Amino acid sequence: MNEKILDNEAVIVIKGLKKSFDTLKVLDGIDFSLFKGENIAVLGRSGSGKSVLIKIISGLLKPDAGVVKVLGQEVDQLSLVELQALRMKIGFSFQNSALYDSMSVRGNLEFPLVRNKRDLSKTQVNNAIEEVLHEVGLSQAINQMPSELSGGQRKRIGIARTLILKPEIMLYDEPTAGLDPITSIEINNLILKVQQEYKTSSIIITHDLTCAKTTANKITMIQEGKFLTMGSFKEVFNTQDASLRSFYDYNFINDK
Ligand SMILES: Nc1ncnc2c1ncn2[C@@H]1O[C@H](COP(=O)(O)OP(=O)(O)OP(=O)(O)O)[C@@H](O)[C@H]1O
């Protein structure tokens, strides 16, 4: 397959991406494509530039050099209005779930929908809320406040809040951080369900190799501003590279 055909199928294309802050080189030549329906897990030590990458993809930071195309549009060439329209197609799952603590679950789900899709009737809004709550397995939580939910439940509601806008791309920032193993497995399964049922393409930032192994079609690692490798879990960890080995060993996975 030639590169042009691949580019046509890609929802994110990044070429020669560089970003520094003063003398600190954070991204130093990142090249990759995220293809439709694919999940990529991005590993990397703290401070390696994972969040900067996500912020550049979503237009919150401007690259110093390189091309960043999302759904066919060059992000740093877009007007604010065009950028806002593009962001509607991207779902962000934040580490802290970013729920509004003063609003019930219903209010948290209603808010993005009513703000972004003003022509919906009350019935359509209610149906959309009920549908996403069903998808994330929390129909019964509709009238609860975020403070009454567990960390895993908050994470699910955070994901439901992005799904309600039917995103094409999902960006997950450490989706299992701070969760117990069983709840982490549930969140991993939800990420897979979202990929399959909503046909999303995702970037998953994680330190959790079980999460990467379960949810991602490909895995990469940022090191010294570059992607060290890109491949399936088996391909990536069949290595003697010390950084990758230390991630692997820390996570105590023995069934490579
Ligand atoms: N707006 C900014 N101004 C200056 N420096 C920044 C800015 N944003 C990020 N950095 C620096 O860029 C580097 C990469 O930060 P980034 O947040 O992307 O790391 P990360 O890989 O997401 O880390 P973690 O795993 O701890 O979340 C850090 O050294 C950080 O201090």
Residue windows where pLDDT falls under 50 for at least 5 positions: 1-7
Alpha-beta content class? alpha/beta
Instruction: Give the biggest beta sheet.
Output: 6 strands, mixed
Report the CATH architecture. 3-Layer(aba) Sandwich
How many extended strands? Answer: 10
Globally, the shape reads globular
Q: So what's the CATH class?
A: Alpha Beta
What is the end-to-end distance?
30 Å
| CATH level 4 superfamily | P-loop containing nucleotide triphosphate hydrolases
**Unique ligands:** adenosine-5'-triphosphate
Radius of gyration: 18 Å
What is the total domain count? 1
In round numbers, the mean pLDDT is: 90
Protein name: Phospholipid/cholesterol/gamma-HCH transport system ATP-binding protein
GO molecular function: ATP binding; ATP hydrolysis activity
InterPro entries: AAA+_ATPase, ABC_transporter-like_ATP-bd, ABC_transporter-like_CS, P-loop_NTPase
Organism: Arcicella rosea
Describe this structure in words.
The protein is an alpha/beta fold and 256 residues long. It has one domain: Rossmann fold, CATH 3.40.50. Helix content is 39%, strand content 25%. It has a 6-stranded mixed β-sheet, sandwiched between helices. Strands 2-1-4-5 form a 4-stranded antiparallel β-sheet. The protein is globular, with a radius of gyration of 18 Å. Bound molecules: adenosine-5'-triphosphate (ATP).
